[in-house]
């Protein structure tokens, strides 16, 4: 997957097109991510034996990873990334437009 937990991403398709958020959870087996404030859904919760309160919850639902792009602060847009190997041998992701390193 081209995005990880904690990355800043921009949504490229769907009802939240153009919105920017932080990746909360990455689900590589399902090829999906959960982004903060994106794809909000309403869940109705029933009270249970431990005296939890019933009510309506608003929470984020997962979206396909192909509908998000990594957000570059320097370019101010969603960008494609490339992998670079530093002199120390560490692999990092870099913006293809400006070359800014992520992580």
Automatic annotation (TrEMBL):
InterPro entries membership: KOW, Rib_uL2_dom2, Ribosomal_uL24, Ribosomal_uL24_C, Ribosomal_uL24_KOW, Translation_prot_SH3-like_sf
Official protein name in the record: Large ribosomal subunit protein uL24
Pfam families: KOW, ribosomal_L24
UniProt KW Ribosomal protein keyword: yes
Keyword RNA-binding: yes
Stretches assigned to the KOW domain: 2-29
One GO cellular component term: ribosome
HAMAP family documented for this protein: Ribosomal_uL24_B
Lineage, broadest ranks: Bacteria, Bacillati, Bacillota, Tissierellia, Sedimentibacter
Keywords tagged on the record: Ribonucleoprotein, Ribosomal protein, RNA-binding, rRNA-binding
Subunit structure: Part of the 50S ribosomal subunit.
CDD domains listed in its UniProt record: KOW_RPL26
UniProt xrefs under Gene3D superfamilies: 2.30.30.30
Its job: One of the proteins that surrounds the polypeptide exit tunnel on the outside of the subunit. One of two assembly initiator proteins, it binds directly to the 5'-end of the 23S rRNA, where it nucleates assembly of the 50S subunit.
Family per similarity comment: Belongs to the universal ribosomal protein uL24 family.
